Amino acid sequence: MASPGDIIVFDRRSVARHRARAAKGFATHAFLHEEIATRLLERLGDVNRVFPRALALGLDLPARPGAELTISGPPARAPQLLFDEEALPFAPQSLDLIVSNLALHWVNDLPGALLQIRQTLRPDGLFLGALLGGETLKELRQAFLEAEARVEGGASPRVSPFADVRTLGGLMQRAGFALPLVDADTITVTYADAFALMRELRGMGETNAHVGRRKSFTRRQTLIAMAEIYRDRFGGADGRIPATFQVIYLTGWAPHDSQPKPLKPGSAQVSLVEALGRKNKSRS
Predict the structure, then answer these.
(1) What is the pairing mode between strands 95-101 and 68-72?
(2) Which residues pair with 182 in a beta bridge?
(3) How many CB atoms lie within 10 A of CB 284?
């Protein structure tokens, strides 16, 4: 439960309802989760390590000899363990690997969630995650803003806010991860129209859960105007509309003495001026 001083951006009960509603037909709309899961597993495959105890938030991991795996989500099938991402039910330093696929972008206390993940990892344990970034659904956001301003004379949050690369990099450092790495790529999907996109989002369990959203039904005129603006502003020659999904990947390790560490200030053997001078000479 949130305390009075907490910043509440998302209605977590609505998030749970959306996911539960999407569970039955999720497999039909799971393409984004599956694509990102594939990319996460490719990154994990580049790590030549054995992780005896692993937690998968939102995706399946391939079975590994001697590995004990706990799975939470996605809504495509009943999870082995159900819990809130803001309150991990694991002892400190009890897991070797945590992989998260689109499980953290609806979290209100993201700094706290990342801290819990780091604290749950054993020393030299690995966290690998993916969540939606700030450029996600930028076309839908703009189309709704213009449509509401035109039809209703004002606007409300229609697309939930997402963090950017710089912010997430700072949060990874703040959470105490060693060797943190944050990078992003973009997946663009086309749809017949804006209504097809909205049906897809509903089927994925990714509909708006912002606490400031309007609770009443959207006017028909607003929806029609939104779809027209979307098509006119972003539609292709074939009449289809693009939808942008920015995916931000997080990689970090629980600190361990064996990991590389930055040099202490003043410990360099060669001054920066000398190094630059040598570099300039070698180029001449």
Answers:
(1) unpaired
(2) 250
(3) 4
- The answer to whether position 114 is within a domain reads yes
Phi-psi region of 83 (alpha: psi -120 to 50; beta: other; left: phi over 0): beta
Q: Structurally, how many domains does the chain consist of?
A: 1
What would the pLDDT profile of 192-236 be if each residue is shown by its tens digit?
999 999 999 989 888 766 655 565 567 899 999 999 999 999 999
In contact, 43 and 249? CB cutoff 8 Å: yes
CATH of the domain at 176: 3.40.50.150
Q: Note the pTM of the prediction, 2 decimals.
A: 0.79
Task: Report yes or no on 228 lying in a domain.
Answer: no
Other Cβ atoms closer than 10 A to 79 = 16
The answer to whether 218 touches 17, Cβ cutoff 8 Å, is no
Tell me if 3 sits within 8 A of 59, measured CB to CB.
no
Task: Classify the phi-psi angles of 223: left when phi > 0, otherwise alpha if psi is within -120 to 50, otherwise beta.
Answer: alpha
**For residue 206, is it within any domain?**
no
> Which of 34-38, 70-74, 162-166, 255-259 bottoms out in mean pLDDT, i.e. has the lowest?
70-74
Q: Which of 100, 153, 152, 158 is nearest to 131 (CA)?
A: 100
Q: What are phi and psi of 55, to 5 degrees?
A: -125, 130
Query: What would the pLDDT profile of 90-121 be if each residue is shown by its tens digit?
Result: 899 999 999 998 888 878 889 999 999 999 99
Cis peptide before 74 (omega within 30 of 0): yes
CB 250 within 8 A of CB 164: no
Residue 41 lies in a domain: yes
Residue identified by tokens 């000398």 is 274
How far is the C-alpha of 94 from the C-alpha of 108, rounded, in Å? 24
- The boundaries of the domain holding residue 86 are 12-134+162-191+245-283
